[in-house]
Amino acid sequence: MAFKVTDQHIQDYHTLGFTLFQQMIPASLLTQMRREADKGRHLGRQKKGPQIQRIQPIGHYDLDLKPFVEFAQLPEMIEALQAVLSPHHWYGRKQEDPLAHTGILYEPAQRPYCTVWHRDWRDNLPGLNVEVWQRRIGEVELFNQVNCALYEDTSLWVVPGSHLRPDLPGEVRRFPARPIPGPDYGAATSPESLERIGLEYCRSMPGSFRAHLDPGDFMLYRNSLWHMGNYSPSRKRATIHDFVGSPAYEAWMEAPPMDANPQS
To answer: What is the model's pLDDT at position 161?
Structure first.
């Protein structure tokens, strides 16, 4: 049965900041994408080491890109994106080349670890004009991206609704300083201890929620949400990661607003 977008998808996206298109990838295409993604894991580790978290863009690796092109052109997916966002949104960073920035996210080979809690652009682009970013975080034209799981994926944590507001007092108390610190692993070395510390860090953010994607699920979300990733070698992962483009977002990415006199 072909995927159909519903009113619930639209409501969830605009209130929570994310929505899940379940079983978006047809089973036959999922088989082909897994095959190439598993090659990509091996190639990425050969090139950048066992802890590599992604390959991006996938066009820089010796993969058969045909399954990913088919995925990027799925009519049901394009229709769903445009129903939730607008008719002038497209899959990928560049409309003329939908795989220009496509990545695949993987599990680490050796040691569990987390990213830091963050909001994209504000917390990972030094010198960004945060006042401009804050004024525009709710604009549907900007800050849309996707995770599409080829295997079950529970790595992504978010704070629902945070894309519509400034930080709450509890969030400020949790992370009062920049750069935002990651988990304190101390002298821990065992995978179980590292996983436990990472999980505690995930749960330490007020209102945190763990997304659960089954194979073939497509998660559309706002990168202006508080979000982070938590990874373990015990959980196999291959998840497509990409932007959803629009004319406004393309212009933002080409020339994000920067402070005229950044702090030293």
So the answer is: 97
Nearest-angstrom CA–CA distance, 264 and 54: 31
pTM: 0.94
φ and ψ at 27, to 5 degrees? -60, -40
Position 262 scores a pLDDT of 52
Beta carbons of 221 and 159 less than 8 angstroms apart: no
Q: Output b/e per residue, 224-245; b: 16+ Cβ within 10 A.
A: bbbbbbbbbbebebbbbbbbbb
Q: What is the mean pLDDT of the segment spanning 174-178?
A: 95
Interior/surface letters 155-168, b for 16+ CB within 10 angstroms, e for the rest: bbbbbbbbbeeebe
User: How many Å separate Cα 8 from the centre of its chain?
Assistant: 21
The Cα angle at residue 182 between residues 122 and 260, in degrees rounded to 5: 25
